[in-house]
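can u do me a favor
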């Protein structure tokens, strides 16, 4: 019985094998070409994804930094949580109470809860604080993280500074800070005020510079605080119209005592000069004696300077020999800062230069004429001593306050003087 099925012959088998091999080669080539194309097409995608992986945290940090530059508006519930229901009080005053707290990430804060008042001035001070320090950032200015304002409360949220305000160290018998550190505090405070006056887009006048408004961190690094009286002003406007007395008696410039007298940023310079006197003396400027006569330290400094005896004055203040040159320099800078005429007071950037010791401080004229006479021209009397109110007086001096010197020239001047 025959069958229809018959095994392939050798020729048929060879042809079939050749066809299969050819097909596999073609398929292999197509696969290789596909893989090469896919790899080339995938490279930019992989690079883009890798770039995204690298850039995502960077971009996130960038956006966080941008957000930090503006104060955040917190709710009353958040502040209650941050302060553990206001359990720790840091201080209090006529403005309200300051509480210690911390954010959820552990960053410590100080929450100033302001006394609510229908008085328009209270609202203006709140807006001044947020509107000025809230738009600035400098290492010598206290950081405002945010605020809270609703129908029940107004509060300001600041960075927490461990060592509190400068006044408790200046006027303490313990003298916990060495004088060299006090000098650094003076320079840092001057830099903060110089930033407000000369580096902000709009000049900021603080109006209340005093030791109580200089806060110190854990390393006694100074930061200017309390901008409740501060005011923004256009740089082109050299004078401001200010209604009412501003600042703290004993630190405020004499122009506040005169009616219709223009107020400039130089009022902060005067206040800073008063702060310098208190650093040198480590005492309050004014003391009332047993016979009710006032012992006023700034006047005493001028009298000692006029006699050429500042060195003895620094000894009487308990300043060690290694610090006396800086103390004498600081005393001369303070005398410049408290000149009666605002134009005769130095710029804060010049104050920084003089305190740091890179320039020669020029002899200051006699201040405090306003203590002996009252009148609309009282602030111009400082110029009668021979000091010009212009900032440039000669080729030898870059200003009326200091003269640029180099170590070589200083050495030459000493040799000439001794010969």
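np, heres the sequence
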């Amino acid at each position: 019985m025959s069958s229809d099925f018959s095994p392939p012959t050798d020729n048929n088998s060879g042809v079939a094998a050749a066809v299969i091999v050819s097909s596999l080669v073609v398929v292999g080539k197509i696969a290789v070409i596909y893989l090469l194309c896919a790899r080339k097409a995938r490279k930019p995608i992989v690079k883009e994804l890798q770039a995204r992986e690298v850039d995502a945290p960077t971009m996130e940090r960038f956006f966080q930094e941008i957000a930090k530059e503006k104060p955040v508006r917190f709710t009353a519930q958040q502040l209650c949580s941050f302060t553990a229901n206001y359990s720790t009080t840091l201080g209090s005053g006529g403005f309200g109470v300051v509480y210690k707290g911390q954010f959820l990430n552990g960053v410590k804060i100080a929450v100033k809860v302001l006394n609510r008042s229908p008085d328009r001035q209270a609202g203006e001070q709140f807006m001044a604080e947020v509107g000025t320090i809230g738009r600035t950032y400098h290492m010598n200015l206290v950081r405002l993280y945010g605020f809270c304002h609703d129908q029940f409360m107004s509060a300001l949220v600041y960075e927490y500074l461990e060592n509190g305000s400068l006044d408790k160290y200046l006027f303490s018998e313990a003298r916990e800070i060495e004088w060299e550190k006090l000098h650094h505090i003076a320079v840092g405070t001057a830099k903060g005020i110089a930033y407000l006056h000369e580096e902000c887009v709009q000049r900021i006048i603080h109006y209340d510079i005093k030791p109580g408004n200089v806060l110190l961190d854990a390393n006694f690094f100074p930061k200017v605080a309390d901008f409740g009286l501060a005011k923004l002003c256009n740089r082109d406007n050299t004078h401001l119209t200010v209604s009412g007395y501003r600042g703290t008696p004993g630190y405020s410039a004499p122009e506040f005592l005169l009616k219709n007298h223009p107020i400039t940023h130089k009022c902060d310079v005067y206040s800073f000069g008063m702060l310098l006197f208190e650093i040198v003396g480590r005492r309050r400027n004014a003391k009332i004696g047993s016979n009710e006569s006032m012992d006023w330290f700034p006047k005493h400094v001028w009298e000692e300077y006029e006699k050429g005896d500042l060195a003895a004055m620094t000894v009487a203040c308990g300043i060690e020999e290694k610090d006396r040159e800086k103390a004498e320099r600081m005393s001369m800078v303070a005398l410049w800062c408290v000149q009666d005429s605002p134009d005769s007071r130095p710029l804060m950037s010049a104050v920084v230069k003089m305190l740091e010791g890179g320039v020669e401080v020029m002899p200051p004229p006699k201040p405090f004429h306003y203590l002996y006479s009252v009148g609309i021209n009282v602030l111009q009397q400082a110029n009668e001593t021979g000091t010009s109110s212009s900032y440039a007086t000669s080729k030898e001096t870059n200003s009326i306050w200091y003269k640029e010197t180099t170590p070589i020239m200083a050495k030459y001047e000493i040799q000439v003087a001794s010969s």
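Residues 1-8, 41-54, 374-397, 411-419 have pLDDT under 50 and may be disordered. hope that helps!!
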